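Table 4 source record.
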Amino acid sequence: MARHRGAAPAAALDVREAYAAHGAELYRFALRQLGDGGAAQDVVQEVFVRAWRAAGSYDPRLASLRTWLFAIARNAVVDEARRSAVRPWQGTLTDDGDAAPMTEPPADDRLVDAWVVEEALRRIGADHRTAIVETHLRDRPYEEVATQLGIPVGTLRSRVFYGLKALRLAMEEMGVEP
């Protein structure tokens, strides 16, 4: 198969292999998020349809297949939750038979976000990564971090600023909206 000039090298995506490796885990994730087995199955199906359609944009140098699929799943779960919010009668049933609106357990969503951010952090320079991790993720004061690193506070602020720009770009390259 000929490769188009200028196209980024993409890994051949074997959907069956990807489903066998990650389908059950994606289903459990969607089920925890949505609380509805049917909706979770729909989400998993949608994940693999989207992955198949976007297979040419998948680049294993930017993100692992698992991370890429979970980013797609996160978006599909959000889409499904939004559809349900418009049609609340199609939410999950409570013990008394009433329809309960679907809510997203924030822990699962945060877990996927953490995987995506971790993958994106690997893509930026070490100085920028350290500045972001220490100030934003560990919530340490700039003065304390700058002293520890032996740099002026202004330099740390600059590293955080440009690091966040690089992080945003890395996430966009991974196909994730920051």
